[in-house]
Amino acid sequence: MDSITNYEDLANAIILEAVDNYRMVVKCLRLNPSNRELIAEREEIEDFFRSPWFSSLTNVNGKKLIIVLNMEVKCR
Q1: 22, exposed or middle or buried, with CB in 10 Å at 0-12, 13-18, 19+?
Q2: Whether this model's pTM surpasses 0.85
Q3: In 1-76, where does DSSP find H-type helix?
Q4: Domain extent listing, the chain
Q5: CB-based contacts of 54: which residues, under 8 Å, 6+ apart?
Q6: What is the DSSP letter of 58?
Q7: Which residue from 20, 42, 48, 73 has the fewest beta carbons nearer than 10 Å?
Q8: Per-residue pLDDT at 69 exceeds 90
Q9: Contacts of 29-36 spanning 24+ positions with Cβ under 8 A
Q10: Which of residues 73 and 13 earns the better pLDDT score?
Q11: Backbone angles phi, psi at 17, to 5 degrees
């Protein structure tokens, strides 16, 4: 493997982990909407999705990703 592929694999793994964590937090917030720890965690992940670091890892629009993930969780 070349270093570019390794970088892309790592970037994808970071993003997928954040997406999985976000889904879990949003689902838990549906059951306990006033949980401050969950609210803080959701905000932290949303900040990551809007961050320059996220933009350097992917071409995905972080703001749109947040919208899509929230819609996805609402439909389940």
Answers
A1: buried
A2: yes
A3: 3-31, 36-49, 52-57, 62-75
A4: 3-75
A5: 15, 48, 60, 62
A6: -
A7: 20
A8: yes
A9: 30/73
A10: 13
A11: -65, -45
User: What is the CA 64 to chain-centroid distance, rounded?
Assistant: 11
**Alpha carbon distance 50, 67 (integer Å):** 12
Using a CB cutoff of 8 Å and minimum separation of 24, what contacts does 9-16 make? 11/57, 11/58, 12/58, 14/57, 15/54, 15/57, 15/58, 15/60
Distance between CA 74 and CA 65 in Å, rounded? 14
Whole-Å CA distances, 16 to 9, 20, 37, 54, 55: 10, 6, 21, 12, 14
Residue 45, classified by CB atoms within 10 Å of its CB into exposed (0-12), middle (13-18) or buried (19+), is buried
Residue 76 has pLDDT above 70, yes or no: no
Q: Residue 16 has what pLDDT?
A: 97
Q: Give the pLDDT band (50/70/90) at residue 74.
A: confident
